[in-house]
Design a protein that fits this description.
alpha/beta; about 450 residues; nine-stranded mixed beta sheet; globular
Length: about 450
């Protein structure tokens, strides 16, 4: 066992009991924003631990907004349910707007449990404005918009559809080749982009149609009306960028999420309330991009932008895993599958943490700490999104990072299991034998 592995074992907090999260709650202290990441979009352990952390932040530290990188309309319906009144009578019904790829990232049993818990929590809060809100940070109808684009391409140009699937996979930080842009893009731009962008922009003109009278009493209902104009202004620029240069579209996406987050905080301030926000997203969004090779290439993300804007009022928490199973797919807009997570490559943080032989643990990073300095040295880090390309995993899913600069804390689960979609399709059931799951809590 190397000296570094021994140091990790000595300083790690094992995640093995009801008080295991106490060091993280101590690190968070009086922070106003806590950004909780995930190494994938489809593992049970990340969802459950984010839920546990969020529940404690709500009940012990007064956090009052859960903001996720989901579309605003989809989570707005959830918010109506958890804050009331709502036409939906069950958590399952409240998730009804999540219909577009990748629906399993929210239509899964773990998130269903959290929605039920949040409803129960809010029912005990007698003053409506003090209930915990659940909001989406993303553009209006992003997933449904992409679905419409894919359908239009499928009907008009199969080559263009293939290119678009590769393009959107690249946006998810997964690519079959280093630069998935080819001459097909020029044909798409001439024959489809202008028309599609015009149609999509027109669909953005009336987002208020998704708002009924019952929602106007909640924070999200009022904010929705004010925020819709900002979404409309940014939509055409953003949707056009999706088909062009990837870094530009990524940065616009991150800026929009930060803008939504900042507008929420300002909205609370105007109502003479302090917004305390938990953000749920992927590591790729919430880990400070300045500490990664992606940042060096010109990308920024909400983690970097939040740190620049809010300083030590923000705490960034990452998650890693070494092996197990994940719910993902092999191409954009493909069916959900149970997929084996390949053991992490040598030289990665995940492989380093695997060498500790600890099944689940947490590290916190502070100043003047030898372990913080050691984990500041660049290593490979893995990011699995909705698309998981095992055949090109090293190229598609790893990047260089300085972990202790990227996050304030990291939770590692050596073996994970796939989240269970609410719709158990044939593809999901048959893609991996269920008995291969680890029996994790």
């Amino acid at each position: 066992m190397s000296p570094l592995v021994e140091d990790i074992r000595a300083q790690a907090y094992q995640l093995d009991g009801p008080q295991a999260l106490n060091p993280l709650l101590g690190l968070i202290g009086d922070a106003q924003l806590v950004l909780l990441g995930a190494a994938t979009h489809g593992t049970h352990e990340s969802f459950r631990k984010r839920m546990e952390i969020t529940q404690r932040l709500i009940t012990e530290k007064g956090f009052n907004i859960v903001a996720a990188d989901a579309d605003w309309p989809e989570l707005y319906r959830v918010n109506q349910y958890v804050t009331g009144p709502s036409a939906d009578t069950t958590p399952l019904a409240a998730l009804g707007n999540f219909q577009h790829f990748p629906a399993w990232t929210w239509r899964n049993r773990d998130f269903l449990d959290f929605v039920g818990w949040l409803k129960q929590h809010n029912e005990a809060v007698r003053i409506p404005r003090e209930r915990v809100e659940c909001v989406g940070l993303d553009l209006y109808g992003l997933r449904s918009t992409v679905a419409k684009v894919m359908q239009a391409l499928h009907e008009n140009d199969i080559d263009a559809e293939h290119w678009a699937r590769t393009r959107f996979a690249s946006f998810d930080h997964a690519a079959e080749v280093p630069h998935p842009y080819d001459p097909v893009m020029l044909d798409i731009e001439r024959s489809h982009i202008n028309q599609m962008v015009a149609q999509l922009a027109e669909q953005m003109r009336a987002p208020r149609d998704r708002l009924d009278g019952t929602g106007r009493e909640s924070m999200a209902g009022q904010f929705y009306l004010e925020h819709s104009n900002r979404i409309i202004r940014s939509a055409e620029l953003y949707y056009r960028s999706l088909f062009e240069e990837r870094i530009s579209s990524w940065n616009l996406h991150e800026e929009h999420m930060l803008g939504t987050l900042s507008a929420l905080i300002e909205f609370y301030r105007m109502r003479q309330q302090q917004a305390k926000v938990v953000v749920w997203s992927h590591n790729a969004h919430i880990g400070d991009s300045r500490a990664t090779q992606l940042g060096a290439a010109g990308e920024w993300n909400i983690g970097e932008l939040v740190r620049e804007l809010y300083g030590d009022k923000a705490v960034l928490v990452g998650f890693t895993t070494h092996h197990g199973t994940v719910t993902a797919t092999t191409e954009w807009d493909g069916p959900a599958q149970q997929m084996q997570i390949r053991p992490a490559v040598l030289g990665s943080y995940e492989a380093l943490f695997h060498d500790t032989a600890m099944p689940a643990f947490m590290l916190t990073f502070g100043p003047d700490d030898d372990l913080t300095d050691a984990l500041y040295q660049p290593r490979l880090e893995r990011a699995i999104g909705a698309v998981y390309l095992t055949s090109t995993e090293r190229l598609s899913h790893y990047f260089q990072a300085r972990l202790s600069a990227q996050f304030n804390a990291v939770l590692h689960f050596d073996q994970t299991r796939a989240i269970e979609p609410l719709e158990r399709t044939v593809q999901w059931d048959q893609s991996e034998p269920r008995e291969q799951y680890p029996h994790a809590a």
